[in-house]
Design brief:
Order of helices and strands: EEEEEEEEEEEEEEEEE
Distance between the termini: 94 Å
Largest sheet: 6 strands, mixed
Strand order of the largest sheet: 6-7-8-9-10-11
Helix content: under 10%
Mean pLDDT: 81
Number of strands: 17
Length: about 200
Amino acid sequence: DTQQFFALYDGTTDTVKVNLSATGSTSTYFNYGNVGIGTTSPGQGLHVVDAGEIVAQFDSNNSSRAMIHFQENGGEDAYVGVSTSGLEFSSQNFNSANMVLDTDGNLGIGITNPKAPLHVVGNISASADIDLYGSPSTINFVTPDESNAYIKGGTGALDLVHSQGSFEAGIRLDTQGNIKFATDHNGGLDFSNTHMIVSHSIS
């Protein structure tokens, strides 16, 4: 046998539990408690060097999720892994994700099935500006009774609209400083036929 290896066997079942093989192009080194794979001078507990784009792979036989557990000196816990929901980030409890990046690229914070590129359940706090790009750009507010309100900004106006079913009511502020009010029972507002206009001259 031309193979060179070191093996540890289970004394009861006579099966190999640890196998170190000298065949192949990648070597494993032990250096003062550090383990190096592909490097002769590992600088951390586990140091992997590989020429491929994927340098490590972790597989789990669990059908629901595969997680990596991080713990700070026996204290705070964090988990990162994949599940049927997508890429999960959890603190304290790996069964309850705090943040999920799903297979469609949607990021959910406080929710595991995000419906938009950014879907947050809970309060949002910002210490600087929030910029929205698009024409128009819309912020939707959805309530449990399925009514909703939205703020829509475009090149010509800023709309504040509330809708429930086929009824909508809205306020528009245009670039001339005019405020327009409109209601509609057919599922669409027409500010050109508005019921009231408050005009303001711009000097």
